[in-house]
Amino acid sequence: MRNNRSVQGITLNVILTITILISIVLTAFVFMSIGQQQNVSSSNQQDQQSVTAFRPTNYIINDKYGTQNMVMHADNQQIKTMRGYLTSADIKNPHQKKVSNATIIAAISKKQSAVYRYPDVVPIDYFNARYNQNIAAIKGFNFDYFVLPLDKSNLAYFINTQTKTMVTVSLSKINTTKMWEVAEKLPKSLTVNFKSLNHRVRLNFPKNIKLPVYSYLVNHRDPTTYVSTLLGTTNQLTTTTDGNKVIYTNKFSDQQVTYDPDLDTVTFKDNKADGKLDKTYAARLNIGFSQINLLQLNLTDTRFYESRNDGKNVTYRTFVEGMPVYYQSESGAIHMTLDNHGNLISTYSLNELGVPVPNNQKEVTLPKTSDILSRLRQAGVKETDYYFVTPGYEWMVNKDSRAAVNMRPTWMIETSSGWQSVDDYLKSRANQ
């Protein structure tokens, strides 16, 4: 009897031990699964944010006769329909080659085509994410134009106007006839074409440009949101002041966030001394964008705008009807700089567009591109003195209410010292 009871006891202990072990394994598996789901969710969130921030800034439709018009005031459903056709397409067989500016202009000007314009070159990975593609053979390729002929050619073109490189791809599983029917109905009010300026193909406005003045209420973000998200909890921080500026420093990492109430900006600064700068353009963009994604900012009106020094200096701007906004802060909506150790310095404007409000201001007529270039030449400005000229909107505080802002159209010029309105640039030159 005692032996039987002993055996039964041992058996029960073994069974209990096995049960506990199984429970531990299952619990660990559950937590691992949850962690994996969280990682996937985070990745998906970043993909969705990148789809928003790195989308085309302009859609240009080339009609059957070769006239090119920029799409204005298109509603979301029209753009979603166009995107749906492209998402369903099978894009493959990339062929890359060096080309001349004349070849680029010919490709961008193809009749019966849709042209997707980005303000600066972006990695093709962002195109893949937005349009559900996997063009892996040219994974390291960057481009600023995608040309989609909506005829029977079954070809499309990715173009990098910086490096004068074009990638031709084949198309299948896309209903170009139906897509062209949608493209023809898109609201188009600005005639454009393309010219070579400073040895690079640029968007050109051959006619005077009529643009409305917009007014919006301004939303002001809380600077402490940036502090808690980027630096950590209060007990990890020290707070100092420099004039009106408030400087928050993480005691362990030495990272800083500076709030400047005069400029309505916050600036994050990393301080690693032994880090390394990522080598690829895509990796450098992703470093800054990962921080934007961490902050969970609303990027509905904000898009990637330009890169300098192979991704070491990156600017995001607010866009209104496909036109960039200037003077929102000294450096755009978001400006990011990477140093040679991979340290990130990022400045965020705390002001963002809220709901639109009515105004009684008349449309503004801006001169065509050739008139602006002629004006610059007459003032003694050489092509080598600037990078680019473009129409855009000035962020102007409403005189009647600081809670509102007006968006007034103007011509802008980019030089080595940054962006200015053409009027201000010429005035400053005259005063030198």
UniProtKB/TrEMBL annotation:
Highest rank taxon of the organism:
Bacteria
Keywords of this protein's UniProt record, alphabetized? Membrane, Transmembrane, Transmembrane helix
Residue ranges spanning the membrane: these are: 12-34
Query: Record's Gene3D superfamilies?
Result: YycH protein, domain 2
List, alphabetically, the CDD domains matched.
YycH_N (cd15787)
- Name of this chain's protein: Regulatory protein YycH domain-containing protein
Q: What is the organism of origin for this protein?
A: Leuconostoc pseudomesenteroides
